[in-house]
Design brief:
The structure is a single chain. The chain is α+β, with helices and mostly antiparallel strands and about 300 residues long. It has helices at about 15-30, 45-55, 65-75, 90-95, 105-115, 140-150, 150-160, 160-175, 235-245, and strands at about 5-10, 30-35, 60-65, 80-85, 120-125, 130, 135-140, 180-185, 190-195, 195-200, 205-210, 210-215, 225-230, 260-265, 265-280, 280-300. The strands form 2 sheets. Strands 1, 2, 3, 4, 5, 6, 7, 8, 9, 10, 13, 14, 15 and 16 form a 14-stranded mixed sheet that branches. A two-stranded antiparallel ribbon has the order 11-12. Helix 1 links the parallel strand 1 and strand 2 (about 30-35). Helix 2 (about 45-55) crosses helix 3 and helix 6 packs across helix 8 (about 160-175). It is elongated, with a radius of gyration of 19 Å.
């Protein structure tokens, strides 16, 4: 029997009453289950840490990518394992690990993994001491996320089409194409003096559009150092090439306005003015600079027995 703590974000876009009842019954049938609900932003960090220090073996985060990000941040350095159940609009991390995009179906896969004790250590990215599980974005994509989050109900009801609209609206009216936000320098000697977008990536795919996985740095895994992507200039042409890269399995190629680096342990993003950034799809207050690093074996993950990383 495994001591399981289930953390639920009740306002996540696809968390339903029926799903909650079914999942709780399934987990409690063979395991010692405790259930917690988040009621405000950031609470998942404290609930996960409390669960670990109260003797939980596994923390299950039912919600979107923000919920699993908070739970993982609460478990850094703890022996307690963590696992996402998809309850958000995109569920990038759960799907990247190999879990189905339906929470009830994913629970069946999780129960099989718990029986097999399929728990492995995994690395995370760090941004100013905040962990990210699959990606950090500074500049343009953070501005897109901020636009989406300002109208959260539209995100809930329209999903991916609203993300596409917000991307185009930000590109054509939300940014200054002639002004860079920051410079970038890595521990491996790569640098960009002026950039409008930087991403640090810890797994692939980068995100999903419906059922379609989008690859930006296909070499990225939870067991290897970070991959990074930088755009020195944003324009419709650059965006078209970026979309083409996302839809292929080869990732982003180097060009005049694009950079693609792998095996990055540390990087510094230095702003020319305060700039927005996001971690795992959660917008963070603007900063003047970011210290990016890779932390190996920082968390323990419960992976699917078949098809997981």
């Amino acid at each position: 029997m495994v001591r399981v703590s289930l953390i639920i974000n009740p306002v996540a876009s696809s968390v339903t009453r029926r799903a909650r009842v079914v999942i709780q019954k399934a987990l409690a049938a063979d395991h010692d289950l405790s259930v917690y609900e988040t009621s405000r932003h950031g609470q998942g960090v404290r609930l996960a840490r409390r669960a670990a220090r109260s003797g939980a073996d596994v923390v299950v985060a039912l919600g979107g990518d923000g919920t699993i990000n908070e739970a993982a941040n609460g478990l850094l350095g703890e022996s307690c394992a963590v696992v996402p159940l998809p309850g958000g609009s995109t569920n990038v991390f759960a799907r990247a690990l190999g879990y189905p995009n339906d929470a009830i179906e994913a629970t069946g896969v999780l129960l099989e993994a718990l029986t097999a004790r399929n728990i492995v250590p995994a690395g995370v990215g760090m941004a100013n001491e905040r962990a990210f599980l699959f990606n950090l974005g500074a500049g343009f994509d953070a501005a897109v996320v901020a636009r989406v989050e300002r109208r959260g109900q539209l995100k809930r009801w329209f999903g991916h089409p609203y993300f596409i609209y917000s991307t185009l609206a930000t590109l054509f009216s939300g940014i200054d194409h002639g002004t860079a936000w920051f410079s970038v320098e890595t521990d491996s000697g790569h640098s960009v003096k002026r950039a409008q977008q930087v991403s640090a990536i810890n797994t692939t795919p980068y995100t999903f559009l419906g059922s379609t996985p989008l690859h930006l740095t296909p070499e990225a895994t939870i067991h290897t150092p970070l991959s990074m992507m930088a755009l020195t200039k944003l324009s419709p042409g650059v965006l078209v090439r970026l979309v083409h890269a996302l839809r292929s399995e080869d990732g982003l190629a180097e060009s005049k306005n694009t950079r693609h680096w792998s095996n990055i342990h540390q990087a510094t993003i230095t702003g020319f003015r305060p700039f927005p950034y996001q971690v795992d799809g959660e917008i963070i207050d603007p900063v003047d600079d970011l210290q990016i690093s890779y932390r190996p074996d920082a968390i323990n993950l419960v992976l699917p027995v078949r098809g997981g990383h």
